[in-house]
Design a protein that fits this description.
Number of helices: 8
Radius of gyration: 23 Å
CATH topology of the largest domain: D-amino Acid Aminotransferase, Chain A, domain 1
Number of domains: 2
Strand content: 25-35%
């Protein structure tokens, strides 16, 4: 079951949960036989042996659990470290399972004792989940908190800031509708003021295609953190002339865009460095390894803001589950 994006949370009859930033995962458990299946239907078990071991140790009898695989590093969740776990080499998988072990945050039970529970209402499935996992949680397995209070869920967002990726809302008396967007999600609106450290031309033509965004680190280096495209055709001619007047060093003085790699293309490598004079505010969704995971949307130009004021401290990382759970408990 998936979720569709909404602009505000619904009212009565819904259950609210944190939106975790990881890999969606179904755990099929038959005693020591455990299979981890991704949302696309692919097997994840070989990449997360510590998780299959943790579930196998529970000796669950014909149980299917729904949850989110995450990796915590230090005081935050790291999507980059989670992605790195998908490696073809068995030796690398074994090493990473020790160095960056995963956790499975569970929020639904779809089968127990061989009985299909998807037609049950969520309220009953949640009770079954808690019953199945009673006294069996440990370092690897976590139970996602929830609330029936809309205002409480909004308070989570306000309290945790951008540490929480958003809120998921599920109908309390609804069944589990496989493959449908029967849940809804409210995502936190996040923005950052960024320096334009460079730009790329369109694939064909001599007009600007995308802006390359940078943020200063504590050492004073301007690091490339992402891009902003979707510029209107009307503004491109004047904007191109404005940017071309600023072409020149230093551009990015830390991490630069389009470094050589097996994924690089001519277009991704070729970019024009700019003198760091222009600042824009952009809207973004998620951050991975101090970079915007996806493209951003231009909100406004910031001529009132000095480039050196655009620091990477604007990008808050997501808290690890245990610390975020403490925030949610304190807010209840």
């Amino acid at each position: 079951m998936e979720a569709k994006l909404i602009s505000e949370l619904p009212d009565d009859g819904w259950q609210f949960e944190p939106k975790w930033d990881g890999f969606r995962c179904l755990a099929h458990c038959r005693g020591a036989d455990v299979a981890l299946i991704s949302k696309s239907g692919k097997s994840l078990g070989r990449y997360f042996p510590e998780m299959t071991d943790a579930l196998a140790a529970l000796q669950l009898d014909d149980v299917v659990l729904d949850g989110e695989l995450v990796v915590a590093q230090g005081d935050h969740l790291s999507f980059g470290a989670l992605q790195a776990r998908l490696h073809p080499a068995a030796s690398r998988i074994e090493r990473l399972s020790r160095e960056t072990p995963a956790q499975l945050i569970l929020f639904d039970c779809l089968m127990a004792d061989g009985k299909n529970l998807t037609a049950w209402p969520l309220s009953r499935r949640r009770k079954k989940l808690e019953q199945v996992l009673s006294q069996r949680l440990g370092d690897r397995l976590l139970l996602s908190p929830y609330s029936l209070d809309r205002e409480q869920a909004l308070a989570w967002l306000a309290r945790s800031g951008s540490a929480l990726d958003g809120i998921i809302a599920k109908r309390r008396e609804g069944p589990y509708r496989c493959g449908e967007r029967a849940m809804v999600k409210l995502k936190e609106r996040r923005s950052a003021d960024c320096v334009i450290g460079g730009f790329r031309y369109e694939t064909e033509g001599l007009l600007v295609g995308s802006l390359l965004l940078g943020l200063y680190d504590q050492a004073g280096r301007l690091n490339h953190v992402g891009f902003c495209s979707g510029l209107s055709d009307d503004e491109k001619p004047a904007l191109t002339k404005k940017l071309e007047r600023l072409i020149g060093a230093p551009g990015f003085t830390g991490k630069s865009p389009g470094g050589k790699s097996r994924w690089a293309t001519d277009r991704s490598v070729n970019w024009q460095p700019l003198k760091p004079e222009l600042v824009v505010e952009v809207l973004y969704d998620q951050v991975t390894d101090d970079r915007f995971r996806h493209g951003t949307r231009l909100l406004r130009w910031r001529p009132d803001k000095a480039p050196k004021q655009c620091g990477s401290d604007q990008l808050q990382r997501e808290l690890k589950p245990s610390e975020l759970a403490d925030i949610l408990v304190e807010s209840s």
